[in-house]
Design a protein that fits this description.
Helix content: 25-40%
Mean pLDDT: 87
Number of helices: 17
Organism: Flavobacterium potami
GO molecular function: endopeptidase activity; serine-type peptidase activity
CATH architecture of the largest domain: Alpha-Beta Complex
Shape: globular
Largest sheet: 7 strands, mixed
Structural class: alpha/beta
Radius of gyration: 25 Å
CATH class of the largest domain: Alpha Beta
CATH topology of the largest domain: 2-enoyl-CoA Hydratase, Chain A, domain 1
Number of domains: 3
Oligomer: single chain
Keywords: Hydrolase, Protease, Serine protease, Signal
Number of strands: 23
GO biological process, one term: signal transduction
GO cellular component, one term: outer membrane-bounded periplasmic space
């Protein structure tokens, strides 16, 4: 099936819309008041019972209830949502920060479960499984030749901590079947992808979401970087759709002085809750930079807003998504949940960064598409700000409300001649699949190379760039890659580094020519 290129930003936008369901929400149970009965609820219950007992045909009333809930929430705001049981379990697991499994990164390649890379020190790595292995059987369950969906595969590989599963694999490099007994264990789902030193005295921490473990992961990384003598820190919140606001607040506290305002919320009844920094900050004097883009939302915006409004650091990048609503979650017995907007949050200067949603959910999530058309992703002057929503920081800097965090230092999207589709494409899974398939052809070609030898090998030829062009053509995408060749080469090399050497090597490659990092490390005089 051909993939129409003009819909690429829409597909990515829709994916992001689902991602921001996590948003900024409070990790707390809903009030018992939500359970109070009233006439409307009685009417709805009587109708469902009437359909159940009297309707002429058999009807799944659960599905009717789900549609009713969806319809009710669609009349509210874009972030008040119903999450069905099938999705809620996965969302909850992601936000919890771990699960019990065998510890592999995998995907369905053709008709088999291909291991991209066993997680370092995880159960599969300890048992001896390797990148490129195909899992043929999990116990007695056949996994190949079936095109199983990911959730079905996960259920076969997950289990109780300490339980054992026998895996039958085919190892292509040895051309034989092997059996491994793997003992399931707790597998962390990292929300902090990297904490490394870039430049001479600058640390870098990448946060992909705000889960239950994010602050602890961040604090561990920051402590390690401080031991290495960093004097500046870059916090990368690009494409971070949010999560628990408490985690973002705890991170902001590391940089702000005692009693500085971090954020405040205002509910329907006008009650205001203010959250201040404490004396516990461990990086209150070094330089701080926060990277944001059009996909940085909610909890990411709370952290960026606290840093900007307190004149604590520099916000670098492009205008953020613009979500200033806080949700509270209510769980149901069937495993589903509702996230209901219960408050608005405001940055320390008093601005709401929530963008308008009166035109409906579809227009709301397509707003980021409009930024391409207006040129906002390429020039700061194209960002629309309202003078009526102008605020001042303590040092007199002008900041704006009404739709996202406007950066202090603008960096246009990494794409030449307006071809933002290439930049977006490179951040999808397509590069990872291409690299896996290339490695799968001959892993021995890289087996004994040091990292520096690997980099030299990648720079010495255009072979993989040409192969990638053909690869995306075969998927139905007709993109002109020549004008963005340096960007494409960087992403291909970085993904090879990740699959061969590990996550930190990916960032070692990807950040060297990153436009926002270069702006920080090499500012114009």
């Amino acid at each position: 099936m051909k993939f129409n290129l003009k819909y690429l930003p829409i597909v990515i936008g829709a994916t992001f819309a689902l991602g921001t369901i996590a948003g900024s929400f409070m990790n707390a149970p809903a009030s018992d008041q939500l359970l109070a009965k009233n006439y409307s609820k009685t009417k709805l219950n009587k109708l469902i019972d009437f359909i159940n007992t009297e309707y002429v045909d058999s009807v799944n009333t659960d599905s009717i209830v789900n549609l009713t809930v969806d319809n009710i929430l669609s009349k509210l705001d874009p972030h008040s949502v119903y999450i069905p049981p099938s999705e809620q379990a996965e969302v909850a697991e992601s936000m919890k920060g771990d699960f019990v499994g065998i510890g592999i990164n995998f995907y369905m390649y053709k008709d088999s479960v291909a291991i991209i890379k066993p997680i370092e020190n995880g159960p599969s790595a300890k048992a001896g499984l390797k990148s490129g292995d195909r899992i043929l059987f999990a116990g007695k369950t056949k996994l190949y030749g079936r095109r199983l969906p990911s959730d079905s595969l996960f259920s076969k590989l997950k289990g109780i901590q300490g339980s054992e599963i026998e895996l039958t694999v085919f190892r292509k490099s040895e051309k034989k079947k092997l059996k491994f007994k793997v003992k399931r264990d707790i597998i962390p789902i990292k929300s902090v992808d990297a904490s490394i030193v870039i430049g001479e005295k600058t640390g870098y921490i990448k946060i992909n979401r705000f889960a239950e473990t994010t602050f602890n992961e961040f604090k561990t990384g920051l402590t390690r970087l401080k031991q290495k003598g960093i004097q500046s820190l870059v916090i990368d919140l690009r494409d971070n759709g949010g999560g628990y606001m408490e985690e973002a607040i705890a991170i902001a506290d590391e940089f702000l002085k005692d009693k500085q305002l971090i954020v405040f919320t205002k509910s329907k009844n006008g009650s205001i809750e203010k959250t201040y920094a404490t004396k516990a900050g461990s990086f209150e004097t070094g330089k701080v930079y926060v990277l944001i883009n059009e996909n940085s939302a909610s909890a990411s915006e709370i952290l960026a807003g606290a840093i900007q409004d307190n004149d604590r650091g520099t916000i670098v990048g492009r205008r953020s998504f613009g979500k200033g609503l806080v949700q509270r979650e209510m769980d149901f017995n069937d495993g589903s949940a509702v996230r209901l907007t219960v408050a608005r949050y405001y940055t320390p200067t008093g601005r709401s960064i929530q963008k308008p949603y009166k035109k409906g959910n579809e227009e709301y999530f397509k707003e980021s598409e409009a930024r391409v058309k207006t040129g906002e992703l390429y020039a700061k002057d194209s960002i629309k700000v309202a003078d009526s929503l102008k605020f001042k920081t303590p040092k007199g800097k002008i900041v704006y409300g009404g739709g996202g965090i406007v950066p202090d230092v603008f960096v246009p999207i990494e794409a030449e001649h307006g071809n933002e589709n290439v930049a977006y494409l490179l951040q999808t899974g397509i590069v990872g699949h291409f690299v896996f398939e290339e490695l799968d052809k001959n892993r021995n070609a890289f087996a004994r190379l040091s990292f520096s030898e690997f980099l030299a090998k990648m720079k010495s030829s255009d072979a993989y760039f040409k192969k990638f062009k053909n690869y995306i053509l075969m998927t139905g995408l007709d993109l002109k890659l020549e004008k963005t060749k340096p960007l494409v080469d960087r992403y291909i090399t970085a993904e090879f580094a990740r699959q061969l050497y590990g996550e930190l090597y990916y960032y070692d490659v990807i950040l060297k020519d990153d436009a926002m990092i270069k702006t920080i490390l090499n500012p114009k005089k």
